[in-house]
Design brief:
The protein has three domains: 127 residues, Immunoglobulins (Immunoglobulin-like, Sandwich), CATH 2.60.40.10; 98 residues, Immunoglobulins (Immunoglobulin-like), CATH 2.60.40.10; 95 residues, Sandwich (Immunoglobulin-like). Helix content is 0%, strand content 53%. The protein contains no helices and 24 strands. The strands form five sheets. Strands 1, 3, 5, 7, 8, 10, 12 and 13 form an eight-stranded mixed β-sheet that branches.
Length: 363
């Protein structure tokens, strides 16, 4: 495996080795370093072990990445080897020193016993000027690439089943009460198995044990209802509920995932952070579209903080619960820019939008 002639000095960010076949034996992929953030001694496998889960459990996890190299990277679509793991979203481009993530979701409903799932993630080097893949002129294939070895492990407990597998609240408008119920079904051999208590964040949720449904063959059935309180501030609800049972030792605790987000009165989708990662030439322009959403109809009155080539033109539109905004980046000079814009509405509510980009020399 050859090295590039333009590798930086020892203390600078280094370029990765020129190529590394995904099937290379006895070699730790240099792509594993994206997940450690350390240029030295990466582990042979980037592992996430969910441990022992009740059948039907749904869990999420975020693999974090950092490009420690001096070369921009393209992240190819990660494809798990089992349908019990799905990729929710991933960062597809990483500039030097930039961070990103791969979000996965595990569904143990179709898993029996122990399961190991591979998640190969291929990284390809891109030309810093053009943003195009760096191609070996002799082979016509990527000149800089490596595939990180990610692995997800879990063990499903067949005697305990969750329906559904988590408290999934989704997107909840601020001030709204909403409920989710999970049914816990025990079909094991322990006489008198029962849940003793539930560890729940009482500042977020009201807790209620509902009358459970009848389940054929079950030794015990519980239905736990969580209701979101109306005064919960905007932000993530991600966490877990810990159930304590009368089972012995490590089997006594059951952890149920809680996911969701309380939305602000105004929110920006798909993200309140707009990036022009590939760079834009001076005297050229690029644009991205975002949408501002609210519970009630509104109009955008102004967008403050524009400048340095960042503009957001406003067109006359009727009031509605969603307003599209076009963010234009037309750099006036080479170099990076970062602008924090404030979107003001006729309801008196505001929301911020961060714009980052890099101006490049005209070709």
């Amino acid at each position: 495996m050859k090295s590039l002639t333009w590798m930086l000095p020892l203390l600078a960010l280094a370029a990765p080795a020129a190529a590394q076949a995904p099937s290379a034996k006895n070699t730790i992929p240099w792509a594993n370093k994206f997940f450690t953030g350390n240029p030295d001694n990466p582990p042979p496998v980037i592992l996430q072990d969910f441990g022992v889960l009740p059948k039907g459990t749904v869990k999420t996890y975020r693999f974090r990445m950092t490009n420690i190299y001096s070369v921009p990277m393209q992240v190819m679509e990660p494809k798990p080897t089992c349908g019990c793991v799905s990729v929710i979203e991933y960062t597809d481009k990483l500039n030097p020193q930039e961070t990103g993530h791969i979000d996965i979701k595990v569904d143990a409903s179709a898993v029996e016993g122990y399961k190991s799932v591979k998640l190969p993630v291929e990284f390809r080097g891109r030309d810093p000027k053009t943003g195009n893949p760096i191609i070996d002129p002799k082979t016509g294939k990527p000149a800089i690439y490596s595939t990180a070895d990610l692995e997800i492990r879990l063990t499903s407990r067949p005697e305990i089943e969750l329906k559904p597998g988590a408290f999934e609240f989704g997107q909840v408008p601020a001030g709204q009460r909403t409920s989710q119920t999970v049914t816990i079904i025990y079909t094991g051999k322990k006489p008198g198995w029962k849940i003793l208590e539930a560890g729940v964040r009482k500042d977020l949720f009201d807790v209620e044990w509902e009358k459970p449904p009848a389940v054929a063959g079950a030794k015990a059935v519980y239905a736990l209802k969580l209701t979101l309180k109306p005064d919960v501030p905007p932000g993530s609800l991600d966490g877990q509920v810990e159930l304590k049972t009368n089972a012995p030792g490590a089997e006594a605790a059951l952890n149920l995932a809680v996911t969701g987000t309380v939305q602000s009165p105004l929110s920006v989708v798909p993200s309140d952070h707009v990036k022009f990662n590939d760079g834009v030439e001076v005297n050229q322009k690029a644009q991205r579209t975002v949408t501002v959403r609210a519970e009630k109809a509104f109009k955008v009155l102004s967008v403050e903080g524009q400048g340095d080539g960042v503009t957001v033109p406003l067109l006359p539109v009727d009031a509605s619960k969603a307003q599209a905004l076009t963010v234009i980046f037309a750099p006036e000079k080479p170099g990076p820019i970062k602008k924090v814009l404030t979107v003001k509405t006729d309801t008196g509510k505001t929301v911020t939008l961060t714009v980052e980009g890099v101006g490049t020399e005209a070709q």
